[in-house]
Amino acid sequence: MKFCSHCGHTVAFEIPMGDDRPRHLCHDCGAIHYVNPRVIVGVVPYLGDQILLCKRAIEPRLGLWTLPAGFMENGESSEEGALRECWEEALARVRTDDLYCVYDIPHINQVYLIYRGELTDTDFGPGPESLEVELFHEDEIPWDDMAFPIMTETIQHYFADRKEGIFKLHRGVIERKL
Amino acid sequence: MKFCSHCGHTVAFEIPMGDDRPRHLCHDCGAIHYVNPRVIVGVVPYLGDQILLCKRAIEPRLGLWTLPAGFMENGESSEEGALRECWEEALARVRTDDLYCVYDIPHINQVYLIYRGELTDTDFGPGPESLEVELFHEDEIPWDDMAFPIMTETIQHYFADRKEGIFKLHRGVIERKL
Hints:
Chains A, B: Its EC number is 3.6.-.-. 2 copies of one chain form a homodimer. Chain A is α+β, with helices and mostly antiparallel strands.
C-alpha cells in the first residue's frame, strides 16, 4: 500500500498513537488502513462413502485437487459462502450438516471455516475455476496431487471420523514449513 | 474507497471481467481491491462460577459491558488473538479450553471466534480500552447494560452449558434487527 484510498496522498507505515504495531496511515486525512486476516470458506461435499474434489483450473496449484473453497465475501454468512463456493467451483449443491474444521494459517493471514455437506444429487460439473470435478472413494483420493495440505488434513479427518461414526469439530494451526 | 492504494489513481466500482459482483478496481494499474469480512476474536474468561467482563472505555457502546474481544491481526492465530485481546482489555491471562462460539454477522461483515478460557489468577484490571474489569456470578451479570447481543448470547450459553456440565460449540448467524 502506497497511497491513501480515501484521499490519494502517500501513506506512511508507522505505529499510530495508542497502537502497538505499524499500520499504513495517512498524515493528510488521518485515515488508518487496517489489514486483517481473510476467511476462506469451504465444504466437504460427500455422497455415500465418496467425497467430491475439484481439479484447479487456476493458479496457485493449477492442475491439483482440492475441496471447493474460496474467500468469504462481505454480506454473506460463512455457511452461505461455503455453499456459494461449492456451486461456483463444482456446480454442486449440498445440504450442510455442521461446521467441521476451523484452521488458522497465521503466516499467510488466513482462517479456514470448512463445513460438511451431503450432495443433494449427482448433477455437478466443473465451474470456471475447475478443470474436472469428481467423486472419490477413500482409496481413490489423489493424495500425491492435492493442492493444499489443509485440505488433505480435512479429508483425512473426514474418512477417519466416518469410520468412527462420529464427526467432531477439528481445529488447528498450520505453521510455516521450516 | 476513492483512490487506488497501489498507484494513487481514482478507482472505479464495477464488476471485473469474470467476476460476479462489483469491486473497487483501478483502470490505470489494473489492481482489484477486494474487501472481505473481518474476524473478531474473543474469550469467555472464567474462574470458578464467575466470568470476567469489561466495561468499555471507547465507542461504540462506551460504558457498557462486554467480553474481551477485538479484531484479529495479521500474523496471529485466532486463539493467540483471543489471548492478546484478553490481555489488552482486561490485563488478564487465561488458559484456553477450546473454541466455544462461531458467529456470523453478515450485515456488518464480521465473523466471531470466541474461546473459553480459565483465568490463571485474579491479577487483572482495566486496559486502555476498558473503564472497569470485574468478575460476575450469573445473577450479577449486568444484562441490561451489555454492549453487544452476540456477547449476551455467548454468556447465556456459557452458564446454561455449565449447569449441564457439557460445553459444546455454539454456532449462529446474527441477522439485522428489522
